[in-house]
Structure formats: C-alpha cells, structure tokens
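Appendix B. Chain record.
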Amino acid sequence: QVRLVESGGGLVQPGGSSALSCAASGNIVYVYWMGWYRQTPGKQRELVAKITSGETTTYADSVKGRFSISTFNIDNRVFLQMNSLKPEDTAVYYCFASVRAQGSINPSDVWGQGTQVTVSS
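Structure tokens predicted for this chain:
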C-alpha cells in the first residue's frame, strides 16, 4: 500500500512564504509524477503544481512566478515552496502522486490527507 504523508502549512501573513513537503512510502516501483492540489469550501479541487519523473514542471497560472515545486526522486519526496502568498492562496493543500505499486501493471492515484494553509494578517 502506498501512502503520502504531508507536512508544513499553517498560518502565514500576506506576502510571506511557506513550504510544504510530501513523502511517498510503500511498495513503490515507479513514480510517474507528484504534485499539489488545493481546495477551498464550495470549490473544486484545483491543480497547483506538478512535477514529472523527468522533472518537467507545470503550474497553475495563479501561482506562476510565486510557487516552486521540486523533488528528490531518490526517496520519493516532493516540495512546494510558496512565496509572496496572498489571501486567495488560503486552502487545504493535498499532495498527489501517480505511482506504480509492486505487483501492479497500471499506475495508481494516491492522495495525501491534506494540510491547511491560511494566509491572513
């Protein structure tokens, strides 16, 4: 069974910075990509940033130039550095991974439990 464990988040002032990390564990054969989604009440979960095994990155337009995603492939961790935070960045942030687990042929989607990021003065 593959698990994602997130850390980071909390309360930060507008214009400040914060960082999230996520570690994937379990019987992982291959990680196709990892990323972060976020969700606010009443809205659909949206992709914030993702990074592939080849380190190709994708960002939501709303975070380009402010957020940066990186990964350490050797131990299946992904990091999200968030700078110049705005109140509209307030959300629950979820780590996501597309992985192939031991004994499986097809990739599986795995979600973390979510971590709250609140941007407020």
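Further analysis of this model is presented in Appendix C.
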